[in-house]
Specification:
With about 130 residues, this protein is of the alpha+beta class. Helix content is about 15%, strand content about 40%. The protein has a single domain (about 15-120), classed as Thiol Ester Dehydrase, Chain A (Roll).
């Protein structure tokens, strides 16, 4: 792990509430003994949807996830936090960012981040304008 993936302890003490926080278990590991990337991706998607829920209560689907590059592994038993922020609200879509950090001992380790776009759907499954909640 490079030092660039560690988050300063003082900075990590800033008051932030994650959209979700999970403890990953042995069943979530890959053949290298670290947490499977697909597990992290599924939680990124879930955290993004939680963030969109602050903007609208409409039915949404994930339209796209921009590049996800893993900077550090996640180990079994670590607490992983998914921090979110709304970037844009379009006509039918909401774009959010998700930052993933893992607690390793007393340090916060930056794992990855992603930008996701969600589209609001009507009862027929067609894109519909975003209705703020």
């Amino acid at each position: 792990m490079s030092s660039s993936s560690s988050v300063n302890s003082a900075a990590s003490q800033e008051l932030r509430d994650p959209a979700i926080r999970v403890v990953l278990q042995p069943k979530d590991t890959n053949n290298a003994g670290t947490i499977f990337g697909g597990i992290i991706l599924s939680y990124i998607d879930l955290a993004g949807a939680v963030e969109v829920g602050k903007t609208t209560k409409q039915r949404i689907v994930t339209a796209g996830i921009k590049e996800v590059e893993f900077k550090a592994p996640v180990l079994v038993g670590e607490v992983v936090s998914f921090y979110t922020k709304t970037l844009r609200v379009g006509r039918t879509s909401v774009t959010v960012t998700v930052e993933v950090e893992s607690t390793r001992g007393h340090d916060q380790v930056r794992v990855t981040s992603a930008e996701l776009t969600f589209v609001c759907l009507d009862k027929d499954g067609k894109p519909t304008p975003v209705v703020p909640s």
